Amino acid sequence: MRLVNITANIAAAWVACVVIAAPAFAQDPEATEPAGPDFNYQSGNITLPNKVATLHLGEKYRYLDSGETNKLLMAWGNESDTTTQGAIVPAEVNPMNETGWAVILTYEDDGHIDDSDAKEIDYADMLKDMKEGTEEHNEARKDAGFQAVHLVGWAESPRYDAATKKLYWAKELDFEGSSSHTLNYDVRVLGREGVLSMNAVATMDQLQQIRTDMRPLIDVAEFNEGYRYAEFNSKTDRMAEYGLGALIAGTLAAKAGLFAKLGVLLLAFKKFIIIGLVAAGGLIAKLFGKKKDEAA
User: Fold this and answer.
1) Residue 44 CB contacts under 8 Å (≥ 6 apart), including other chains
2) CB 223 within 8 A of CB 229
3) I need a surface site. Which of 108, 135, 222, 261 has the fewest CB within 10 A?
4) CA nearest neighbour of 281 among 197, 184, 164
5) Residue 33: its pLDDT value, please?
6) CB neighbour list of residue 178: distance below 8 Å, 6 or more residues apart
7) Torsion angles phi and psi, residue 195, rounded to 5
């Protein structure tokens, strides 16, 4: 199934998402580290606030709970947001550095995702449709006074591990007027009732670093007993109204739309994170519910 219509519909719903941006902080020329708040990091095995999953961080990663993550987001210049499941920061990374970054965790309980079509997805064809959908909205973005954004391609082609129910991919985005391309790395862990999302955004010259740090992160998160994918009960549990393909395409469409809508602002930032309500398909489900009416 071609995804142009799906991405077009989702991109039109920019306002359903929340943009979280990390600006470059002014630094004292003689200072070795930028000024910023102190964070209370946790390590080891961390149960997420909603109790559905556990992070096994070991010594390579640190965890910020929802309150500390909110402190970080506000230090990055964002409005208060206490809806996340926290954040993961590599042990050797200072998120307040110019090249620092963090992985923001969110969870959407939109239902159980059927992965039976995983082997049938043509990611090259999907990429083509996603590019077309993104370009279709560039004229509207330019008319609104914002820079266009272009999907360059996969920085890392989508891969789905059917055994662990984990999906990851990375995209390269080009914002007109920006001197460097943007890297968006996504990890999704499928559960019984929803999806755990792990999102990191950096510049393309950080690809190797992000890839090195994100690959192990794919393995640190697992759902707790009662919330695991294999525990799905078709008699009592709700099915999501979208599959893996829409999960990937929908994420890009929403983020690309938001990136372009706020392009002028974002170009002044060194890095930024996007958290979308559609990231795990919540809005996709609603749009799919209207599909029959629109077709009629």
Assistant:
1) 57, 58
2) yes
3) 135
4) 197
5) 53
6) 147, 267
7) -130, 135
d(CA 259, CA 272): 10
Residue pair 188/166 in contact by the 8 Å Cβ criterion = yes
Q: What is the dihedral of CA 211, 216, 218, 220, to 10 degrees?
A: -150
Helix/strand/coil for 27: coil
pLDDT tens for residues 166-193? 999 988 888 887 787 878 888 999 999 9
Dihedral sign computed on CA atoms, order 95, 96, 100, 106: positive
Question: How many Å is the Cα radius of gyration of the chain?
Answer: 19
Amino acid 289: pLDDT = 37
Report domain extents, the chain.
4-24+40-290
């990937």: which residue's tokens? 248
Counting every residue written for the chain, the total comes to 296
Q: Is 77 left (phi over 0), alpha (psi -120 to 50) or beta?
A: left
Average pLDDT, the chain: 74
SS3 annotation, 154-191: EEEEEEEECCCCEEEEEEEEEECCCCCCEEEEEEEEEC
Q: Which residues contact 269 (CB under 8 A, 6 or more apart)?
A: 21, 22, 23, 24
* SS3 state of residue 126: helix
- Contact assessment for residue 7 and residue 250, using Cβ atoms and an 8 Å cutoff: yes
Q: What is the pTM for the complete model shown?
A: 0.73
